[in-house]
Amino acid sequence: MSIATVCLSGTLDDKLVAVASAGFDGVEIFENDLVASSLSPKRIRERCADLGLTIDLYQPFRDFEAVPPDVLAANLRRAERKFDVMAELGADTVLVCSSVSPDAVDDDDLAAEQLHLLADRAADRGMRVAYEALAWGRFVDTFDHSWRIVRRAAHPALGLCLDSFHVLSRGGDPAAIRVIPADKVFFLQLADAPRLRMDVLQWSRHHRLFPGQGAFDLTGFVGSVLATGYTGPLSLEVFNDVFRQSDPNRTAVDAMRSLLVLKEKLGLVDLPRAPALDGYTGTEIATHDPALRETMTALGFHRTGTGRWRQGGATLTIRTGAATRITAVEVASTDPERSRRRAEALLARPDEHGVPAPDGTTVAFGTLANVAGEGLLTGIDHVSLTAPFDDVDQTALFYRAVLGLTAEPEAEFAAPYGLVRSLSASDGRVRIAHNVAMLRRGDWAPAVTDPQHIAFTTADALEAAKAMRASGARLLDIGDNYYDDLDARLAPPNLDELRANSVLYDRDEHGEYLHFSTDIFGDRVFFEIVQRVGGYLGYGVVNSPVRMAAHRRSRLRNSR
Amino acid sequence: MSIATVCLSGTLDDKLVAVASAGFDGVEIFENDLVASSLSPKRIRERCADLGLTIDLYQPFRDFEAVPPDVLAANLRRAERKFDVMAELGADTVLVCSSVSPDAVDDDDLAAEQLHLLADRAADRGMRVAYEALAWGRFVDTFDHSWRIVRRAAHPALGLCLDSFHVLSRGGDPAAIRVIPADKVFFLQLADAPRLRMDVLQWSRHHRLFPGQGAFDLTGFVGSVLATGYTGPLSLEVFNDVFRQSDPNRTAVDAMRSLLVLKEKLGLVDLPRAPALDGYTGTEIATHDPALRETMTALGFHRTGTGRWRQGGATLTIRTGAATRITAVEVASTDPERSRRRAEALLARPDEHGVPAPDGTTVAFGTLANVAGEGLLTGIDHVSLTAPFDDVDQTALFYRAVLGLTAEPEAEFAAPYGLVRSLSASDGRVRIAHNVAMLRRGDWAPAVTDPQHIAFTTADALEAAKAMRASGARLLDIGDNYYDDLDARLAPPNLDELRANSVLYDRDEHGEYLHFSTDIFGDRVFFEIVQRVGGYLGYGVVNSPVRMAAHRRSRLRNSR
């Protein structure tokens, strides 16, 4: 398993250390990292050897083929200088990208002839050339086109580099890869990406993701490449604005986890399977805001032990902590021990409390005690957590992979203080959401940043709201403008009741969603009570900006 | 002058206050802001009146026209509910966007007929409908198409809303707007944008900018609209991820400045013209790092007065300050008093030191004393400043507008700790650059964040580097990998000398650029010495990542 240094932030040495610590076997050395490094290629070679890393590829070499003779001469001189570096570095394969140069002409025979020449020069030094079709190459922009040229050149030191992004972003059919002989696939680069409708070059340079974080079918792609008989490294090459500025140690671990999940899907690694989940056994909140416990009581919870609270089918642990936050999510596993082993295999480090997730929450595995009791609340619908904007893709992948959840469609909405991304995953019983600012927030945003919440299920949201409000629960008031708009948009039959009880409403093609919230406690955590009618699939995200504005008002009022 | 509330961050009340303080006369009320507000429409009307704001538009109303009868009935009901809100609000114009609904059909006659019906309903209440072609409208996506429908509908309460983004993003010809009668242009919305090759909906929703910050010809566009005889508001409607989370008071001032600059170009406002500049009279640095003054001496500077230093044609003021930074840029104006008046007209607040720019630097205006003297340095080539990533577009516009500079092509490069945007503006004598992280940085990046620098000009960079190094100036060492790559890329004839003196090199079609840097002083400021050969236009940005990595090394070494 290998990774390109361009995936990570820092200097070359920062990157090599991070890559080795995360357990990779090899690296692709990205030229810019080497150029900016004070280490000579020879020292880099020694450094990699010390760290147990092989140098699997030197990249990229650009704009070589299908050019007039004078340009060819200059390009060969340039290549020889790079072969000098590679020789010192001990790298035997160079990536040559299909040309984007205005000097190039559209002539496959000429491209093949000149690549043959380059492969000759490489072979003289015991090196080889991996030719890659960039999705935005001037004339060669698909893998099958690059393969036709490589086949025509027919040189043992010339083969292909296949990159999932370049193939899948263009809608290429990976099944066609299977016709390529294994000894002609010199290298395999992997990147996922969200489906974006934008210039493919910008998409590639800014928005790639690690496998499993985007929308591409990496399993199918790698499956096709492996079907050729390819036995070289699976190597990650991810250009991503956020990863470029994040802690490389953390990014490297996340990258390795994503590769493990991919290998599991391909049957290349045997991880403990994710056991089926039976829902939540509870969640834990740390706080020292007394109002939180008061509202628990008003919501109908009662204490069942030290720090343990229950209301119908919903249980919660409250412990005293300096800052209010959701400290643990306890899920009911059909095999808690295997759940823990799976987490460990996915690079988590379980302790006596459970598995620490990248967002700081502990994931604990228990078994479901049959605790169904009387009460308005029947359990936990979802837990909404937070992660820094630059860690959320990795964090979400962690939860999905460890718990065996499926990603749900991502939502994005304009909140009062900026755009918010909402990622969620579910197996139908356990739902975990992460709501994060799209960009790191500016300083100005007042009031609540990054609130977390626990959403309890109820069979009757209107009744629950009435009863809880009557008990003095600090529930959020929603203004009339919302209901006037709701009337114009969806005209729910029970509009007056929704309005009277400050219950929010949404509808999709499967059903309805009624939900209401408490105030925010300890500047961080609130409770939501939700009722799903029919098969409604979402989380009422359309109402989130209204809820957020209402939370700000209630905080201003409470702080007076 | 008007602005849509969607341009700004915060709750509706935050926005209204910011808009009024910045001197706008009116607002477009964005529906989501109203829906999330606890203020009733009537209270919002009163609030606007108190703040001296007219409500110029209520927006948006979506997916109305060219639908089957049952959908039409529902849409009319929906419209009546919104007219109720508008009546309370005292808004008389509603924006109706061309439909993106799957319910709509491609039938201009039907669209015209149904819009006529809507206009009738509006007219009954003394209101009017401004129909706008979204650039991604399902059937109607150009202004001329929307105009054909409005003309066909022939209702006095039905007219057009023209939005510069929707017209210019599609490459529409604004000159064709001049055929539309003035009484049919109900509203004019203005937004600029960078030229991006991406889905136009995403481009519009995330990347709009205020006029003058992007690549669109707003002057030509507004000129065409005014040529119809349009006398309504010029209203800004800018959806931008960053502005959505920035301090609305600041954004509103920046928005107003951008509108003033646009109006100046159109001859609609008479601002003091920017006087020609003669270059720099100096710059001022605050520091308490003694190494900075030592290096000044080694660079050949000598004191000419309290805190004043000179070397040949370059002058500098060093004052003692707690944090090291460039505190002032002093430019030589042919009319300093007019320069100051211009700054004031552009919403700056000059004090006795000069004009405070949004990035915290003071811009001072002096007159050029003829100080040419002996020395290796001949003056200041450019000053490179910093601004938070979410303020840099506004900051750059401020410098351009106040100083009368022209924007140069924007550069973007991968630095060791993340992507960096480099914006610069110049009049050929004064060059101001801003280098900022593309995203707010993560916490991990060690060493230098946001360094500033002053670049002095020299006629011979190699000689200057030798002399300064001999005098003990703390100059940056550049590693061999850079020169080996330079040899492969550009093969400069004086490679050995460049290498021996750690001088960086670049070349464009106009000439060459030789440059070298000192260490960073006080964690913030360094000096660069640059030689332009021929008409080289850039700033050697290609070498920035190498310089940054070298700066990190030198800081680690110095901190040992």
TrEMBL record, chains A, B:
UniProt pathway annotation: Aromatic compound metabolism; 3,4-dihydroxybenzoate biosynthesis
Gene Ontology molecular-function annotations: 3-dehydroshikimate dehydratase activity; dioxygenase activity; metal ion binding
Keyword Metal-binding tagged: yes
Residues involved in a divalent metal cation binding: 132, 163, 189, 237
InterPro entries per the UniProt record, alphabetical: DSD (IPR043700), Glyas_Bleomycin-R_OHBP_Dase (IPR029068), Glyas_Fos-R_dOase_dom (IPR004360), IolE/XylAMocC-like (IPR050312), VOC_core (IPR037523), Xyl_isomerase-like_sf (IPR036237), Xyl_isomerase-like_TIM-brl (IPR013022)
Pfam families recorded: AP_endonuc_2, Glyoxalase
Binding site for Mg(2+): 382, 453, 528
Function: Catalyzes the conversion of 3-dehydroshikimate to protocatechuate (3,4-dihydroxybenzoate), a common intermediate of quinate and shikimate degradation pathways.
Similarity section: Belongs to the bacterial two-domain DSD family.
Name the record gives this protein: 3-dehydroshikimate dehydratase
Organism: Actinophytocola oryzae
Taxonomic lineage from the root: Bacteria, Bacillati, Actinomycetota, Actinomycetes, Pseudonocardiales
